[in-house]
């Protein structure tokens, strides 16, 4: 087969056969567009035969026949709608691939310059110079419409979210193109170093160390809209702000983070910060965790973990280990009954790190309760109700009394994302796990916790993703394919005691990705050097490096050729891997 990739989302080819459809399915394609009218030649395989083969192989099929030299504006609009409304990767074919590539270029000319499109199509063997004038006209009309629309302001790149992901991408973009027109939409007035909240709850940091004014860390060269987004309109390349104003963009980066769903557990929100109920997942509550640990001398302490996905899958354990370490140092651990109630079936999702963690579980006398999910909390009576599933799959309800309850809340995509055209069935932004480019809208990317890429949701992952997104955004603006590659890197410094950390570093499928050689930091064993990195180096690296576009040790890898689309790599499932 002669597959020619225009972007990671869409490829074109000459006429295909019924046998080719199975090959396309095996290569990860999800949709086929036929742009060739039936019966153009005697040896042609007509659309119905390809449609039947596509359905048999689980692929979507759409027939948009184009007569050579007669591409109408309606045809272009229909092709754009098909791209927006179907899962990628997509293969579009005609007799030679020329009509399909022309449709793609004309559809994309609403937001990509003609020069960039001509370069992209020429690179795969199609000379569309005869379409230059039409592309130029469409590009100019789109820009004019965006300028004259009510309340619409236009920026080359709009970033939704000013947390770790949004600011890191902005700084990485400006590092590469200092004059780039960038806007960040972020309503908050404070910026937080959230990985530090574990150490606040462990008595190592003061919470003020993890907070800075947003205006002091926002890149100076960007336009900051201090408001929230109420709607995404990717077909029009617009977002709507809470006050009704619109922002038009050429490229959009979604970096909203996720939603901590405190209300998913009845009784939890109203008892947080009192009755012994706390959580290091909130800036205002982490000091209460430390207060409880210091004051508790005997009794029952329960630490919970909900179903995946959650940000920093090791954080619930970190709170537990640091608490146990303090009780051990103060001589009260023997009087404490400590339980770890997790919805998962294993202590940690990457098996290589479990032996070291189990040594601490045994040393602290922690009871592990797998497949236990917190369902409700009665704070005044200090009762926690769990759903427990046994080995036979039977579900029972268990009520546990507590003196201290540390809760990791269920987590989901923000409502504005989950209800938008950007979301997958679970509500997350639907991206390619390698390029972080949206599977349907080629000028949209996601960074951080809001994407459905199957990596661990950690700040370290954001640090690796930011330069990948920056390079791929700039490629999209040029009309070139996204070639920077994210391999799923995430890091979870598991604070097993004050002064020692098990430094878990891994990528897609749980593959270990250590930053340092084993003789310096053995990530499978507790390390004092890893603690130094967590306590001293990483906060500085966050504020002075990551947020300012410094890409030490995270320069992105690149695809060396235009690959045929592949299936997504296996997710690192923190619930089931043992």
From TrEMBL:
<dbReference type="InterPro" id="IPR029021">
    <property type="entry name" value="Prot-tyrosine_phosphatase-like"/>
</dbReference>
<feature type="domain" description="Beta-lactamase hydrolase-like protein phosphatase-like">
    <location>
        <begin position="2"/>
        <end position="108"/>
    </location>
</feature>
<feature type="domain" description="FAD/NAD(P)-binding">
    <location>
        <begin position="156"/>
        <end position="275"/>
    </location>
</feature>
<dbReference type="GO" id="GO:0070224">
    <property type="term" value="F:sulfide:quinone oxidoreductase activity"/>
</dbReference>
<protein>
    <submittedName>
        <fullName>TIGR01244 family phosphatase</fullName>
    </submittedName>
</protein>
<keyword id="KW-0274">FAD</keyword>
<keyword id="KW-0285">Flavoprotein</keyword>
<dbReference type="Pfam" id="PF07992">
    <property type="entry name" value="Pyr_redox_2"/>
</dbReference>
<dbReference type="InterPro" id="IPR036188">
    <property type="entry name" value="FAD/NAD-bd_sf"/>
</dbReference>
<dbReference type="GO" id="GO:0071949">
    <property type="term" value="F:FAD binding"/>
</dbReference>
<keyword id="KW-0560">Oxidoreductase</keyword>
<dbReference type="InterPro" id="IPR023753">
    <property type="entry name" value="FAD/NAD-binding_dom"/>
</dbReference>
<dbReference type="Pfam" id="PF04273">
    <property type="entry name" value="BLH_phosphatase"/>
</dbReference>
<keyword id="KW-0809">Transit peptide</keyword>
<dbReference type="GO" id="GO:0016787">
    <property type="term" value="F:hydrolase activity"/>
</dbReference>
<dbReference type="InterPro" id="IPR005939">
    <property type="entry name" value="BLH_phosphatase-like"/>
</dbReference>
<keyword id="KW-0874">Quinone</keyword>
<dbReference type="GO" id="GO:0070221">
    <property type="term" value="P:sulfide oxidation, using sulfide:quinone oxidoreductase"/>
</dbReference>
<dbReference type="InterPro" id="IPR015904">
    <property type="entry name" value="Sulphide_quinone_reductase"/>
</dbReference>
<dbReference type="GO" id="GO:0048038">
    <property type="term" value="F:quinone binding"/>
</dbReference>
């Amino acid at each position: 087969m002669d597959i020619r990739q225009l972007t990671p989302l869409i490829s074109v080819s000459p006429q295909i056969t019924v046998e080719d459809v199975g090959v396309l399915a095996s290569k990860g394609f999800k949709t086929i567009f036929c742009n060739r009218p039936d019966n153009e030649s005697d040896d042609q395989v007509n659309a119905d035969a390809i449609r039947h083969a596509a359905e048999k192989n689980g692929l979507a099929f759409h027939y948009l026949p184009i007569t050579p030299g007669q591409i109408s504006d309606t045809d272009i609009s229909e092709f754009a709608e098909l791209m927006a409304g179907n899962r990628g990767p997509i293969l579009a074919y005609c007799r030679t691939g020329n009509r399909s590539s022309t449709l793609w270029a004309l559809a994309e000319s609403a937001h990509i310059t003609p020069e960039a499109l001509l370069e992209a199509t020429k690179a795969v063997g199609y000379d569309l110079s005869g379409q230059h004038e039409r592309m130029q006209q469409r590009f100019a009309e789109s820009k004019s419409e965006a300028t004259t629309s009510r309340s619409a302001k236009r920026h080359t790149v709009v970033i939704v979210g000013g947390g770790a992901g949004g600011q890191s991408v902005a700084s990485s973009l400006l590092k590469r193109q200092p004059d780039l027109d960038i806007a960040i939409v972020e309503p908050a007035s404070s910026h937080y170093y959230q990985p530090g909240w574990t150490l606040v709850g462990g008595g190592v940091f003061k919470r003020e160390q993890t907070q800075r004014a947003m205006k002091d860390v926002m890149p100076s060269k960007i336009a900051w809209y201090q408001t929230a987004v109420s709607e995404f309109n990717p077909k029009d390349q617009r977002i709507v702000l809470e006050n009704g104003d619109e922002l038009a963009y050429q490229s959009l980066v979604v970096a909203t983070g996720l939603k901590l769903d405190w209300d998913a557990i009845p009784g939890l929100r109203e008892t947080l910060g009192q009755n012994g109920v706390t959580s290091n997942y909130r800036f205002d509550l982490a000091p209460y965790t430390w207060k409880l640990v210091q004051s508790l001398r005997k009794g029952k302490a329960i630490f919970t973990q909900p179903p995946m996905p959650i940000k920093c899958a090791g954080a619930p354990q970190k709170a537990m280990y640091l608490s146990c370490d303090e009780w051990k140092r103060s001589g009260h651990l023997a009087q404490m009954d400590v339980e770890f109630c997790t919805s998962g079936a294993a202590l940690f999702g990457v098996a290589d790190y479990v032996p070291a963690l189990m040594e601490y579980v045994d040393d602290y006398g922690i009871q592990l309760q797998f497949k236990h999910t917190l369902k409700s909390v009665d704070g005044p009576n200090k009762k926690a109700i769990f759903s427990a599933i046994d080995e036979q799959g039977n579900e029972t309800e268990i009520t546990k009394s507590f003196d201290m309850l540390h809760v990791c809340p269920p987590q989901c995509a923000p409502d504005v994302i989950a209800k938008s055209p950007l979301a997958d069935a679970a509500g997350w932004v639907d991206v390619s796990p390698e390029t972080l480019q949206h599977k349907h809208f080629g000028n949209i990317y996601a960074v951080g916790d809001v994407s459905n890429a199957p990596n661990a949701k950690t700040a370290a992952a954001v640090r690796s993703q930011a330069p990948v997104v920056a390079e791929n955004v700039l490629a999209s603006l040029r009309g070139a394919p996204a070639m920077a590659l994210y391999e799923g890197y995430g890091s979870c410094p598991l604070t097993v005691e004050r002064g020692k950390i098990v430094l878990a570093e891994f990528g897609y499928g749980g593959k270990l990705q250590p930053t340092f050689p084993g003789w310096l930091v053995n990530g499978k064993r507790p390390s004092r050097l890893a603690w130094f990195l967590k306590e001293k180096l990483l906060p500085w690296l966050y504020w002075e490096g990551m947020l300012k576009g410094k890409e030490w040790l995270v320069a992105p890898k690149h695809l060396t050729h235009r690959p045929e689309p592949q299936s997504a790599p296996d997710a690192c499932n923190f619930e089931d891997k043992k």
